Every structure is written in C-alpha cells, then in structure tokens.
C-alpha cells in the first residue's frame, strides 16, 4: 500500500545570534514536515533567500543589523507566514498588527515552539483549501488569516506570474499565492476559459476575439496554440 507523501513546509531562519539560530535549527530538524532551506543573519540575505526559494514560514528576529525585523517585514511583498523571535516584550502589539502567525520570546522553550508550529500548520491547512465556492456566484480566497470575497461576475481575467495569480476585476486587482492551474480547476468552464498558460478569461467579458488574441477590458491577451481547440471562437 502506497503511503501518502509527508507534507513539507519550507522555512528560513533570520537570526543574527548564532546560538539562537542553532536552537531553532535543532527544533526544526525534529519535525519531518519542516524543511529548512536557509539560515541568515540580516535582512539583505533574507530577501535573497525569499527570492530563491518558495518559503512557507520565516522565523524572524527583530533586532537585526542595519534593517530591523519589522521594517524588513513591512517591505516584503507577499511575505510567507512569520513567527517572530525576540527577547523584548514591548514589540508584541506591533507584531500582531503585521499579522504574524506567532510571537516567541527568547529563550524559546521547545513546547512553546511546538505551539507556534501548530498555529502555523493550521493556517497552512486553511490556505491549502484556498477556495470555497458558494452557489457559483462568488468565491472566498484565503490570504494569510483573511478571506477575500470575489464576485465571479466581476472578474475580467486572471493572470499568472510565477507562483502568484492576479485576479483583475471591475473594482481592483487581487494577488494571491497559488498556481493558476488550481484556479482553473475550481472555476465553471461555462463562465471561464483558459486561453494561455498565463491567462484565464471570463467568457462574458470578451470584447474582441480572433484566433490569436482576445481583448477584455481594453487589454489584448494572447491565445496559446495548445488552448485554441478548447475555446469557442
């Protein structure tokens, strides 16, 4: 009997105290679902790690050299879940305002670490669900701890950019971390069509169409060769 694959969550440690970093690394190594992909001591290196790896969880110390932890976090676009580590109580409120997963005080007891990881996994499992469909009129998409309601009729098109999608609607553009293939699976093919590896369009919003181009809301989108047979032109 084939056993289901163990979930693996990629994480990084951003910590300038070697002993504290080693303790976290040891704790992480005890959990088969956690995969440490990088360890660094400053925000510049951390930015590099985030650009190289698909990171699910970041352990972030607040008192980093040059750029402090919260200042770094405010400037990260689409950050992973964050567990803050610090020896200072006074930053707790500010941390929660930044929507962190948990806040660990140094020295970190192992049991407290386990509690924080439990919170993180709960958030990840909620994120794995990603979409909830209600009568096909709207969807809820998970973004960290928040759920964003999107009316299906308001969607013009969905654009993929690496591991993110941009949902272009009548009111604004929403960005979520998920593959476009998962979005395609949940949408009603009578309402939406995949026209390219990077685009899903709303059929009702088509303004101009040809064999190679579909125009929606003034935007010309390419039709991929392999998708042409799937589209009613």
List the SSEs and their pairings.
Layout: E1 9-14, H1 18-29, E2 34-40, H2 43-52, E3 57-61, H3 69-74, E4 81-86, H4 92-97, E5 102-105, H5 110-129, E6 131-134, E7 138-143, E8 146-151, E9 155-161, E10 164-169, E11 173-177, H6 180-186, E12 192-196, E13 199-202, E14 206-209, E15 213-216, E16 219-222
Parallel strand pairs: 1-2, 1-3, 3-4, 4-5
Antiparallel strand pairs: 6-7, 7-8, 9-10, 9-13, 10-11, 12-13, 14-15, 15-16
Question: What integer value in Å does the Rg equal?
Answer: 21 Å
- Widest sheet: strand order? 2-1-3-4-5
What's the domain count?
Answer: 2
Fraction of residues in H or I helices: 25-40%
Helix count equals 6
Order of helices and strands: EHEHEHEHEHEEEEEEHEEEEE
Largest beta-sheet details:
5 strands, parallel
- Low-confidence stretches are none
Query: Would you identify the CATH H-level superfamily of the largest domain?
Result: Response regulator
- End-to-end separation: 46 Å
Q: Which fold does the CATH topology of the largest domain refer to?
A: Rossmann fold
Can you identify the CATH class of the largest domain?
Alpha Beta
Number of strands: 16
What does this structure look like?
This protein is an alpha/beta fold and 233 residues long. It has two domains: 9-128, Rossmann fold, CATH 3.40.50; 131-230, LytTr DNA-binding domain (OB fold (Dihydrolipoamide Acetyltransferase, E2P)), CATH 2.40.50. Helix content is 26%, strand content 36%. The protein has helices spanning 18-29, 43-52, 69-74, 92-97, 110-129, 180-186, and strands spanning 9-14, 34-40, 57-61, 81-86, 102-105, 131-134, 138-143, 146-151, 155-161, 164-169, 173-177, 192-196, 199-202, 206-209, 213-216, 219-222. The strands form four sheets. A five-stranded parallel β-sheet has the order 2-1-3-4-5. The chain has a five-stranded antiparallel β-sheet with strand order 11-10-9-13-12, with no helix packed on it. It has a three-stranded antiparallel β-sheet with strand order 6-7-8. β4, α4 and β5 form a beta-alpha-beta unit. The longest helix has 20 residues, at 110-129.
